[in-house]
Structure formats: C-alpha cells, structure tokens
Amino acid sequence: MPEGNTRSMTGGGATHRAAACAFIILVLAIYGVENVHAADTTAISVGRPLSGDQHRLVSPGGKFALGFFQPAGGVAGSWYVGIWYNNISVQTPVWVANRLRPVSDPATSRLAIAPDGNLVLFDGRTGSTVWSTEANITADVRNGTVAVLLDTGNLVLALASDASGSAAVLWQSFDHIGDTWLPGGKLRRDKRTGAIQGMVSWRARGDPAPGMYALQLDPDGAPQYVLLWNGTREYWITGNWTGRIFADAPEVAASSGSSGYTFKFVDNDDESYFTYNFADNSTVYRFVTDASGQVKGWFWVEATQAWNLVYAEPKARCAVPRVCGAFGVCSEGASTACDCARGFSPRIPPNWGQGDYTGGCVRNVELQCGKNSSGGGGAAAGSRKAKMDRFLEMDGMRLPDDGRVAGATSSGDCKNACLLNCSCSAYAFNGSCVLWHGDLLNLQDSLGGTAGRLYLRLAASELPGARSHSKWRITVIAVSAASIVVLVVTASVLVVRATRRRWIRARIQGLSAGDGRVISFKYRDLQSITRNFSDKLGGGAFGSVFRGELSSCTAVAVKKLEGLRQGEKQFRAEVSTLGTVQHVNLIRLLGFCSDGGDRKLLVYEYMPNGSLDRHLFRAMPPSYSLSWAARYRIALGVAKGLAYLHYKCRDCIIHCDVKPENILLDAAFAPKVADFGLAKLVGRDFSRVLTTMRGTIGYLAPEWISGEAITPKADVFSYGMTLFEIVSGRRNAEHGAFESAAAASGTDHTTTTFFPVTVARMLAESAEEGDDVTAFLDPELEGNANASELRRVCKVACWCIQDGVDARPTMAEVVQVLEGVTDVETPPVPRYLQVLAGRAMHASDTCV
Asked: Which ranges carry the Apple domain (predicted)?
C-alpha cells in the first residue's frame, strides 16, 4: 500500500478499535450473517485471535470460512491456516497461508493481530512466527487493524479511517494467490516493480507446499498466459488475447452464454491483469493449477454434491513435464495418464488413485550392484555383482533429455559401460551411447516415428527366464520345435477367425433384417476387425472411436469406453436395452464387448461423412459446405431423434451432451444422433457425465450449474445452442463475420461476442425493417436460404435457450414447429442474454 495512504490515518488505538468495530458492523449489515456458529467469528482484531480447529473466521454471507485444517491425504499432525467453501460438503481449500511451514498443534497456535499491526500465525509450541502478512504499517495506526473474510473468498487486512466504516486495505489474499484463482481475483503483472503474480500448484495431493507448476502472465509482456515448470520451462501457452478469446485457447472467451461469466484484460500504466466474474453470484467456480500440471476449471453442482471438471489444459497430458514422476511412463491414449515402468510400483499409491502421479515410482527390487557396493560404483564392485542386473528393452519411448554421452562405440560396450556404474539406470545406443543416472523422468511411450529404444536397468529377478550361453544349443532346438507348432496353431487360428468373421457378418445382416438384438463380441474379434485399433476416427469424453471392417463393403465404428465402473451383468443388461432403441435419426448400436476389467466397447454403424462439426466449422478434412436445405433437414432430423429418446422409449433417455460433434452424417448427409446411450450407461450420476464433458460448457443448460434437477429440457437447451451454430456455421463465441454483416446493414453490434446475442438484437431490428434475416446466415451460403424457414429456426432456438425450464418447448413441440404443423410465438430474450449484451433490456424486448 502507498505510504501516503497510511499517513492520512490519525488517532489513538481506542479510536481505531472503535472504527474497526464500525467497519465490521457495516460489512455485516451490508452482507448479512448466515451459518455463523457459536465458535465462529466475523473478524480478527487486537485481543481477538483465532485458535483451535473448531474456531473459524466466516465471511459475512457465510460462503467462505478460514481456520486451521488438515488437507485430505496429508501428513498427520501437519496443520495449515486456509480458506475453504463453508457451505459445501467437500472441504476444498482455495488459499493457504503457511504453505511452507505447517504447525503441529492448532489448539495452542494462534492467528492474531501482532503489535506491528500485521496478521500473524504464531506456533504455540515455539512461540515463533510461522507466517505474516508483512504489510508496511505505520506506527500511528498499528492498533487499528482488523482482518475480515469477504464473500468473494478474499481475506483482507484493513483499518478504518473513521466511524463511518470506510476502510483502507493494507493487505489482501487476492494479491497473494496460491493454486486457486477465484472470480474477482487478478493474475497480474506490476509494471512498477516487475513482479508477476501467478497460480502455483500444490507439491502433491495433501501437501500445499508450492509445487513445480505455475500459470502466470507471459514474463515477456505479451497478453497471454504461460504454464511453467520450475519457473523456467514453458510447456503450454494460451496465445495472445484478441479482445474476445485467447488465440490458442478459444474456449476461454470474453463471455459465455451458458455459464454467464465475463472475462476481461486490463492494461494501464500501473499494471496489467486478467480477471473474470459470474453474473450469478451464487455460482461456485474455481480455476486451479493442479498438482498434475494442468490448469483445470471446476463447477460445484449442488444436486450431485460434487465438483465437476469442465476445463483442462494442456489437453495433451504428456506435454506436462515430469507429470508421471520418476520411472513413470506417460501414455496419451490410455484411460490413466501414467503407469509405472516394469519393475516399479507407485511411491504413494493413494495419490495415484486420485490422479496425482508426480510422486513417481520406486523399484520393486533394488539393483544388486548398488546394494552390494559401498562406494561410487567402481569397476571392481561392478564386475562382482553387475551380472545380477539386467536390462528391459523398451521400444517406442521418448528418451529422457538429461542423458550423458559416453565413449562406447557399440551397443555391447554401451551396455557394459552402464553395468560398471552402479548409479546408471538406463542406456540407449543409436550410433552413439547415452547413459542415464539416477531417476528417469519424462518417459512417454507410443510415439511412433519420433520414438527411440531405451534399455532400463532392473534386478535380475524382475526379468526371469534368462538362459546361459551353455544352453544355447538346447534353446535353438526347442525354438525350432516350437516354431513348427506355432505354424500349425496359426493356420488353425486363421481358419477360426475367418469362420467367426463370416458368423459376425451374418449376425450383422440379421440385424439389418430386423433381428433387433445386439451381438456380444469377443475382444479379440474387435482387435481383428479394427486391425488392433489402428485406424482412429476420433475421440470424445467417454473414449476413442476406431474404424473396423467386417468385409470389404461393411464398415463399423468401435468405441472403447473409458472410466466406466459398471459391473459385467449391469453393463450387459443396459446395452441390451439400448439395442432395442431404433430410430432413423439415432446411430444404430450393433454390438458390444465386455470381457471384464476395462474392456468395455460398443460397436456402431459407420457414418462415412463424419460429424456435423467437421462440415460446419471445417474442423478437419474432408469437409463440405452444407446448403441451407441440408442444414434444415439436419435440424429437423436431430429434433426427431431427441424426441424419440425423450418420449418414445420405454425409459426416458436424456442425452446430456447434444452438440455438433455428437451428430453424425451418413452417406446422404442424413443426421444421426450419436452417444445417446452413454448417458444411460453411466446412469443418473450426472456428476460423472459433467466431469467428462470437457470443452462443451457452451452447450450446458443453466440448471447444470445451479444444481437443479436435470430433465429432458437440458437437452432442449443444448439443441437450441446447436441450432445457432447450424445457422451461422461458426461457434457461438465467434462473431467476426456477423460484425461485418451488422455493419453492412447499418447497425452497431461490434461489441457483441456471443452469437445468440447478435441473433436476439438483429432479429428484433429486422422485424421492424422488413424481416430481412439472412444476415444471420453462414457467409458461405451467400444468402441462399428460405427466409421463413430461417426465421422459424431462429425463433425455435431462442425458445430452446430460455432460462426457465418450463419456458422451453419439448422436443416433440420443436418437431411440430419445424415441420410447419404449428406456429411459434415471439420468444422473450433470456435473462442471461441481457447480461451478456452489456445493457439493460426492457421486459418487452423479444428475440423476434
């Protein structure tokens, strides 16, 4: 705080204490006091410290609490002072004071106002200062400081200037962010001092000490965020802020219609910073730099009493340095990011169960060389015991980047050079010899052409079955005999596979003829028809999809499910039910596989034209520009498919993830809703559904966030958001072309960054100017569209995205409107659109 501000405060200690009390009373009067227990306090002032794990400092509205706590999974006897959400069932710390120095006894430790006016944590056993705000407070005002916790989650050390309660902030936790960025906080750069405030991860689950990962503004001054490892190594960037989005992270936009948040960048002479807020103050959201090295966005859903992940970067988990720790191997395509190399086990198994792999792995059996050598690994010790260690050949690996080049000129010499040094953990030879000593870090498998071959050193007992040179002749004879047997067995297997493939093909033909049943595949069958899952079509929240061929003219799509915890019997029963769900606009489920463990797969009919997003947004080749007639047929077909799921099935099926990526197109560009069965397979555990819907926050109905019960109307909302994109050919948060269209029509909409807002405004104006609605269209259509159909679609879209569940139509009603059977009235502008529009709209304002 500038010195002049403190000097303007005058008066004795009693005056300041009275002013502080007045300040507290004013704050409580403004916010109201909720959920305050007898052991809670509303302020820490001189003579009123906080002590013990049953005492808390609670914010005026009861949203946040501060006190002593032990992190879940932490070390017993280690206590911290932190801030967490007061009214949710899962204790979630958002700020920790003494990250580096826990205290052992909260009963005797005190968080108090010290004689110098600072807020200080005293260790009860030693009496020493563990943590302090370290604000520069002048002597004349030291007795008037008070600490309060605001409903934003901001801990403030302030003093009252007079009895009116206006306060000068001396220190605040929002200027010292830990691993969590709350709404209203700033990630900033102080241009006067050059200091950069970022988010620093915890060291591990249960350990709030500063970790190795940090998100901060670009040190070079660019308006972008960078993720750093160890403060120096940059491994992900958002790209520059364009005023609307980050260039390389477009999902973070200036505003979001479905969640009601605004995101902005401020740059002035004193500082530059980003901040964000929500229109609804009851929204519980947090950005976290996770111990895994990813930046994650979490919503709290009251209905499910769980945090739901809606954002994570970088998406490539293996891009995070040391994400799997020592001797951990990272895999992008696996259901879990990390696994220990052979011969190793997780160092901290509970953390691995929570997705924190940074603790790495430890050897199951110590190396014999190191175990029997007392020195640094001399040649004599190595020659005695090195033969007890062997090497595991690991193909397709990303080699660690801290190897040392040795002088060996052959693979054998390189191997011996590693064996003769007890600290050597691995070697690689590709014309030159590279040795690695100590822990191996940043291992990654399945890298294809960029991969190398690594030889990992293990104790001999970890690689059983070694044969000595004296048994070489016997081995050759045995191998020859085995080869003959293998040839016979292989021929038999080929015959059996061919026969089974013909059987599978016959079963598929039976399905086409109306059999109505699904096939139970063996895992090896799906490996065969997909060529060991080599042709990947894409991936989504629930797994990856691969192309398979039953014959030269019969293709299928095979989806490998990830993270599904259903039992065998339940899974089979659910899939059998889904097999009876048949509609021309729903993807056909042909079969499934459930061979135990994680081997749960679904087999669908193959859609040659891929997903709708490919053609709307030109997401990937090949893509085609869809005519208006094709888009209208797609909109109608999707509505019919969803109406069938909601009302024509034996049980109502809520899709939960309607978006262009989940609308597939057959050879004739007829739409088929995909992944509709996945919501049923995960049951009504919507926490799990939301957790896996990363990157689709723009399609989520408001009730997902507010915690209300989920109904089919959640699908209606998502369908409405999809309709806007079918019309515009762009993501709802992209608006450049529509600004141009607005300018051409003489209207001023250059500040609109969310397409539904543009539709709401332009439709209202076009209704007064001759019903010209073609400005909404994808520019590639050049205005070629049926005006009445276009207006009908836009009206339906506006109705579908209403805030209130009851105000939205059913999908059956949507079908009737799009078919022209019934007309639709003029819809009101949804409340959240008024907020996003940045101006007050009258209640009479309408979308059309």
From this structure: 369-459
